[in-house]
Specification:
By secondary structure, the chain is an alpha/beta fold. It has helices at residues 32-41, 60-67, 84-91, 102-109, 116-123, 136-140, 142-153, 179-193, and strands at residues 18-23, 45-50, 94-100, 128-132, 157-158, 162-165, 171-175. It contains 8 helices and 7 strands; from the N terminus they run βαβααβααβααβββα. α1 links the parallel β1 (18-23) and β2 (45-50).
């Protein structure tokens, strides 16, 4: 039988759902590969953005092959003529950060933008979803709880975390939610957001 190849490369401008997936430095980062695959099976464009710490757990090449799009790992890229993080912020239908570490949650709560993920999150007008994953004591710390509360008040949505076996040896809350739950939450956000692009970007400079 002749082979058929799925076409999963629509342009973000075509109206396709564009998920910007932020991957941070948690052991749960390995689930990003399955997350990309599941999202693409449901006809999403997926652009992966990784912190340097995330690259210690899963390689950018893995996510590039699965997404068929270049993975962003740095704010500065001499091969790009535009500003990558603001372009992705404008194109995103939803920004999903999974896993979301205590560090990235703290940065977002305080408006810090010193890596591609936090810059995109600060610049986008698309819905932002966070799937926290961390040690139970880090999760329970008043600072983390306050940061999560601040982000929820600003409209960010959280997915989990779940109770499970943590890399630190505890059997407790802090485990990254299952991929299917994250996918369903992402589609819930997409359904409620329309295109996810609420601002008009001017062309050229005055």
């Amino acid at each position: 039988m002749p082979e058929t190849r799925r076409n999963h490369k629509p342009s973000p401008a075509s109206g396709a759902r564009h998920v910007v997936l932020g991957v941070t430095g948690s052991i749960g980062a390995y689930k990003a590969a399955d997350l990309v695959r599941r999202l693409r099976e449901r006809d999403c464009i997926v652009t992966c953005v990784m912190t340097h710490e995330a690259c210690e757990f899963i390689t950018p090449l893995t996510l590039q092959v699965l997404s068929e799009r270049r993975v962003v790992t740095d704010l500065f890229n001499r091969e790009e003529t535009g500003i990558v993080h603001t372009t992705l912020a404008d194109e995103a239908s939803v920004v999903l950060i999974a896993p979301a570490t205590a560090q990235v949650i703290a940065k977002l709560a305080h408006g810090l933008a010193d890596d591609p993920i936090t810059c995109i999150a600060l610049a986008t007008r698309a819905p932002i979803l966070l799937a926290p994953a961390m040690n139970v004591h880090m999760l329970d710390h008043p600072a983390t709880q306050e940061n999560l509360s601040t982000l929820r008040q600003r409209g960010c949505r959280t997915i989990g975390p779940q109770h499970g076996s943590l890399a630190c040896g505890y059997d407790a809350v802090g485990h990254l939610s299952e991929v299917e739950e994250i996918v369903e939450a992402t589609f819930g956000a997409l359904a409620g957001s329309g295109s996810g692009r609420q601002a008009t970007r001017r062309h050229g400079r005055s």
